[in-house]
Design goal:
Elements (H helix, E strand, L loop, with lengths): L8 H9 L4 E8 L5 E8 L5 H16 L8 E5 L3 H16 L2 E10 L2 E10 L2 E10 L2 H19 L5 E12 L2 E12 L2 E10 L4 H13 L10
């Protein structure tokens, strides 16, 4: 049994889908939970051997899972898919949110947060409120961020905040946010991070946006 048995298959598939050329990934596991097959659908912009190395590096870096390259199967899309992917990338860039303002306040035992984002030239105001615990205040900032993005997104998708925290990595503080994107196709987990440069709230907003920025072009049918 390898360390893959301790990681959810959907988390591994989601991580592989974040690799630039990969459009879809499916993991097949053995009865003991170890990876027996990895099937990948990818753009034809990188040599299969390099993609295999990228997959091996991704699994080792993210989950500490070594995988035999013989277990990896890659199917390349046609050249027309590259043009379509370029269009989607342009749409993602145009839709990428810009932070306008962040406001977090505490009143007695209650706290509130509001985040204003500019997306596609229009401003969206997100808000959240709840108990004024330290962990709760961090969650409220992330929830307000998701609330603002939800106002831009199509009604067929929604977000769930799995967790958000500030961690110490060496000499740096880093905000880490884990988001679940829920749609008619199921649930997909994504994570994002941001170095703490100004304050915790700013970094939490940036980490939350980092988790979903690459999906922005798919969040609306407009």
């Amino acid at each position: 049994m390898d360390s893959a048995s301790r990681v959810k298959v959907e988390h591994i598939e989601a991580a592989l889908a974040e690799v630039g050329e990969i459009k879809a990934a499916r993991i097949v596991t053995a009865p003991d939970g170890s990876i027996s097959e990895i099937h990948v659908l990818a753009l034809p912009t990188k040599a299969p051997k390099q993609l295999v190395r990228d997959i091996e590096s991704c699994l080792m870096a993210r989950f500490g899972i070594p995988v035999d390259h013989k277990k990896i199967s890659i199917a390349l899309l046609g050249r027309e898919s590259v043009k379509e992917d370029t269009k989607l990338s342009d749409r993602n860039t145009a839709a990428r949110p810009r932070i306008c303002s962040i406001n977090a306040t505490v009143s007695g035992v209650q706290a509130s947060a509001s985040v204003i984002l500019e997306i596609g030239g229009q401003e969206y105001v997100g808000s959240a409120s709840g108990p004024a615990s330290h962990t709760g205040r961090n969650r409220l900032v992330a929830l307000a961020t998701l609330d603002a993005v939800s106002q831009y997104a199509d009604a067929s998708v929604s977000f769930a905040l799995e967790d958000v925290t500030i961690v110490q990595l060496g000499r740096e503080k880093v905000a880490v946010s884990c988001i679940a994107l829920v749609s008619g196709f199921g649930e997909q987990p994504f994570s994002g991070s941001a170095l703490v440069r100004q304050n915790d709230a700013d970094s939490i907003v940036r980490a939350t946006l980092d988790a979903i920025n690459r999906r922005m072009g798919f969040l609306t049918t407009a």
